Amino acid sequence: MHRLVGNPVCTALSNTNYCQLQRQQSSRSYSTSLANCGTKLCTADQKLSPQSCDCAYPYEGTLYFRGPSFRDLTNVNTFHALEMSLWVKLGLTPGSVSLQNPIFNSDDYLQIQLALFPPAFSGKYFNRSEIQRIGFDLSNQTYKPPHEFGPYYFIASPYPFQGISFVSNTETSCPGVVAGIASGCSVLILCLVAVAIYAIRQKKRAEKAIVFSKPFASRKDNSGGAGAPQLKGARWFSYDELKKCTSNFSGSNELGSGGYGKVYKGVLSDGQIVAIKRAQQESLQGGQEFKTEIELLSRVHHKNLLALIGFCFEQGEQMLVYEFMPNGTLKESLTGRSGIHLDWRRRLRIALGSAKGLAYLHELANPAIIHRDIKSTNILLDQNLSAKVADFGLSKLVCDSTKGHVSTQVKGTLVSMTQSRYR
User: Where does ATP bind (predicted)?
Assistant: First the structure.
C-alpha cells in the first residue's frame, strides 16, 4: 500500500506512518509450478511444459502491466486467473502457460516473464501462423487480461522456428544434374538482368513524364520518395464513412454521452482509431456557426490538447472526429474505474500537462480561448498517460471593434473569449 509515498510533503515527514511504504511479506513471489515434472532436464534451448512435462520450444516474452490494483505477488489465485485467461483467450491447451518472476520494476510496472507452450500432440514447435496470431493478440492488446491487472504491453523474444530440411549432397552428386542446374541458373540470371535494365529505363522515362504532369513530382523528400506534401489538418468525412466505421453507430461502440450528444468509437479505413462526437437534434447549430467552430478548432495544435481530426456536415448531421484516448478520463483513473494506478509522480505530470494545454489556449491561441469548464472528466489520458484537455471550442464569433474584444455564445460546455475581455 502506497499511502502518501512520493508526495513532496513527505520529504520533511518521512518518519510518519502515512509517508512510509508498507512492504510486502518477504515470502517468495509466484511462479508456475513444475513440481509434477520431478527432476527432468531439457537442453539449453528447450524448457519443460507445465502441462505435459515434455521438453518443447515455448513462445516467450515479457508482460508489463502498467496499473495493477494489487501489490501481493504471492497470491496464487490471482496468477492462476491470469494463466487460465491466457490459455482460454489465446486458444491454447489448459496448463500450457508458464508465469515466472513477477516483480515491480523501477517504473512501478508489474513485470512478468511469460512462456506459452505448443500442444503436446503438435510436437515441440509452434508453426508460423500460430506465432503470428498469438503475437498479434498480445502486441495489439486484443487479448484482455483479468480486470485487476489493468492495461499492459508485451515484448516478445525471437522464436526459434523449426529448421527446413534440405536434400542431401548424395542425391545431387550426378555431374549431368549439376551441369544442367548450372546452365539453367546462368540463363535465368541473364534474363533477370535484361528485364531489370529494361525496367530501369522505363522507370526513368515515366519519372520524366511525371515532372511535367505533377507540380510536386520533382520534389524529393528525405526518404527519396516523391509526391505532394502530406498536410495535417481537419478532414471532411461523409456520413456514410462515419456510419460504416462505427457499425451504424452501434451501442457497443458508444463511449459516453453528454449535453451535446453521444460519443462513439470508430475505426477509419486506414486503421486509425477515432472518437466521433455526434450532436443531438436539439444541440445542432447553424451552418455558419458549425463552420466557425471547425475553423477555430483546426487552428489549435498542442500536445496536451485533444486534436480535431475531421468533421461531418451532411444529411442533417453535425459530427466532430477527434483522436481516440485509450485510457479514458482522469476521473476514471482517480476513482479506480479504469484499473490504472496513478502514483504521485504520474499525477503531478498529468497536472503539469493540463496546465500547459490551458496556458496555450490562454496565451498562444488566436483568438485566445478560456475553457471555463475544467474538471477531471474533461482531461483525457493517452496511451502514455499524458494529459489531453478536451471540450473546448466556439459556437459563434461576435466581433466588437469599439470594445476591442471577441466573445462567443456558449455551446454546451464550450466557451472562448480573448483575455482582454477580463482585464
Answer: 277
Dihedral sign, Cα of residue 208, residue 210, residue 213, residue 219:
negative
Quickly tell me which residue has 499511502 as its cell.
3
Place of cell 508489463: 64
Q: Is the pTM of this model over 0.90?
A: no
Q: Name the residues annotated as catalytic.
A: 373
Question: Cβ atoms within 10 A of the Cβ of 144, count?
Answer: 12
CB contact at 8 A, 385 and 346: yes
Mean pLDDT per 10-residue interval, the chain, length 423 residues: 58 59 59 82 85 89 94 91 93 91 92 92 88 92 93 93 52 61 88 93 82 55 53 81 91 82 90 89 73 80 89 87 90 86 90 92 83 85 90 47 46 36 38
Tell me how far apart the alpha carbons of residues 384 and 376 are, in angstroms, rounded to a whole number. 17
What is the rounded distance in angstroms from the CA atom of residue 13 to the CA atom of residue 118?
53
**Residue position matching grid coordinates 483513473:** 333
Other beta carbons less than 10 A from residue 275's beta carbon: 20
Spatial strand order in the sheet of 110-116: 97-104, 110-116, 59-65, 152-156
What DSSP assignment string belongs to 204-243? HHHHHHHHHH-TTTT-B-TTS-BSS----S-EE--HHHHH
Diameter of the chain measured on Cα atoms: 100
Question: With contact defined as beta carbons under 8 Å apart, do 193 and 104 qualify?
Answer: no
- Hey, which residues does 407 pair with through a beta bridge? 398
User: Residue 153: what are its φ and ψ, rounded to 5°?
Assistant: -145, 160
From CA 325, how far away is CA 21, in angstroms rounded?
A: 32
Which residues does residue 414 pair with via DSSP β-bridges, in sequence order? 411
